[in-house]
Amino acid sequence: MQPYHGISASDGIAIGPAFVWRKSARRVDGRKRRRGSAREELAQLESAIESTGRELGALREQLLQKLGPDQASILDAQLLILEDEDFLTEVRAGIDAEGLSAAASFARAMAEALIPLNLSGDGLFQERMSDFRDLEQRVLRALAGEPDPTPELDEPHVLIASQLTPSETAGLDISKVLGFCLEEGGTTSHVAIMARSLGVPAVVGLRGATRNIPSGTSCAVDGTLGVVHVDPTLETLHRFEARIRRRRKVEEQLLNLKDYPAETPDGRKIVLSVNVDLPFEIDLALESGARGIGLLRTEYFYFQSTNIPGEDEQVAAYTRVIERARGESVIFRALDVGGDKLISSMGGYREYNPFLGLRGTRFLLSNPELLRTQLRALYRSSSAGPMKIMFPMITGVEELRALNVHGREVREELTKEGHTFDAELEVGIMIETPSAVALAPELAADCDFFSIGTNDLTQYVLAVDRGNPKVAHLYRSQHPAVLRAIRDTVKAAHDNDIWVGLCGEMGSNPIFAVLLVGLGIDELSTHAAAVPAIKKVIRTIPYDQARAWADEALSLSTSDEVDAFLKARAHERLRDFLDMD
Ligand code: PEP
Ligand code: MG
After folding, report:
1. Catalytic one among 190, 229, 479, 527?
2. Where a domain ends, among 144, 169, 184?
3. Has residue 94 got a pLDDT over 50?
């Protein structure tokens, strides 16, 4: 069978029999009339809500035991909806006043709650939609008297499913899951995050997997490359087994590097830090031997609750993060959303192309109250420990100047009110649009650092949607146009005496990391799991050589040429500890 190509969601390799989990979603016509009396349907609704609440509470407890409070809080959003009186009043009114069945009224109210999330192109909002759908299915199943269908694995298997909701993931006996192969879901889905934190390989975006892979078939899962071999040949199996053995050995060696600096043999020091989406990842970051958090995506704090969190609530949350980082610096990125969700809840409109719409800094500047609340909270939190602030998706100098005016006014306000904060706190910007690259010399004059966001920079430089599987083969951060944009950004930063980091996914690839060091990057922020290998390549290749790699790569004209060149070099120098064929 031809191998399946998907998207790598969690690094690692596994071999085992497939367990294909096909689940059918319950669909309900939102206009369906009730058969019984309003009283009977209302009673059924209350009992379904109560039993769903009990189920979720028990799953939450299991998550708490297995993975700690942050992972357990994943289910809080669902539990909160079940307790939301406005939402429940609407469901009850549908039954009582409009004569709908309990299932129809619940499904309709849920669909209405989902509209604002559905309008957003933002990946994280899409993930939150799966929380809501998960809850909807649980309540509809409870109303129909159906049991919870979470798969029960008695032996270790490679789990194949269309998608796993947070509560389904929570209910799994993870010790029996060798790897995840999912048709849907992105790299920021709960299952992907959980797989990464537990070191279980995962591949997502595997179209047709549940239809075409029979249960029991042997599967070789390559979570590193995002490939699944179904019914692998003996030769593939031997290759995978050899890789598993080699990875184990290398992992042991790399762990010993934890306390060594990320410094090239000829003395160039790189700040190696970690990207964090959810607070529990900070612990992994520190264990991995990284220095600080190079990107903390604050979106998480906003998605957690149904309302925009207030200033004090944010101060408490950011302070907890700083304390958890135990003296290492944390770069908090101001809220980076494609604005649709919040705009539509304020009576806004649908955007045809949210990635080119009211996103990142544009959104912040159009919502000054929200921006200033976050800035006040961030500055106030700065007395708890070392931190920096960073702004997302800058496209021009006027935006940075406007942000700086808000920053100055916020600091003045806080001083007048008697709050303490770090007056020297560094404020930086993400370089992730072609216009920011072109204006980097001017932007550098007005901020303290740059962090290159190659996830977006690649999509905007190459005009390739970062989340569209149909053009995924064109989305390549090693494209010469992206490399030249990075080179120009580094030059502008250094000419203006500021430091420049990189926090896109590109930095987590050890071969690209050498290239980036050679391009002059001062700080690399990667995922926690990538830190040991990145540290090893930095400590192996002298800066002089990395620069020669970068010069050569910059002289090439296509992504394939860059790829072939880097692979050949890596094969010569890094083969012993990289997972290369
Ligand atoms: C990036 O664009 O590279 C980045 C790190 O930000 P995000 O992935 O959150 O857009
Ligand atoms: Mg970005």
Report:
1. 190
2. 144
3. yes
